[in-house]
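Hello,

Our lab assistant flagged a job as stuck in the queue for most of the afternoon. It eventually completed. Since we weren't sure the result was trustworthy after the delay, we are filing this so someone can double-check. Below is the sequence as submitted and the structure that was eventually returned. Let us know if re-running is recommended.
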Amino acid sequence: MQPQTPTQARNDSDHRPGFYELPLVPPYIVDAQDIAPAIPTPNTPAGTPNGKRQSINEIIKDGELALQKTEPTLALLTDRQHTTWLGLDDLIDQLRSRFTLHRQTLAGIEYAKVAATNEFYALGLQNGPPDVPQVFALHDRLQSFYQEGREEKVRFWRDVSRLRQVMPEAVQLYLSAYRKAAILRGDPQ
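-- returned structure --
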């Protein structure tokens, strides 16, 4: 494999990184946007005065919850709609954050594997052929990186499956509150 200069572009779609290259994005990671697309906002959002919804992170950061001015009978259901939306939005944000963390962790492990291998070959160039203890040391380092990768994949699966178990109930609560508020507003479904 020829070294790639910065001006050359890759043409082959099934290129696999070698020892001296880092993978840009591992091929087995799915984008979080594909898994959890944005929640459509209803016609009358509760939130800040400009109509933009608050997220849980904004409420924590600002220390206040912006309320929508509405009549008291409708406010009961729109408040429930807003709080269930907050829960659902936070759940989706947690999923996206976990996908990002997973992607970054696996990229860091891949980087460490490439760096360890490069260090091994650089020592070999300086000191001659590696001896048996050096080969075993590299093998042990690489095995520990593979073990970290496997453990991260299991933690990722566990975290995402827990969040996915909660998701149907959160969606159902949000849709129920949304439809009840739409009935009181007289919106056609």
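-- support follow-up --
The delay was a queue issue, not a problem with the job. The result is valid. Residues 72-127 form the longest helix (56 residues). The chain has one domain: 36-185.
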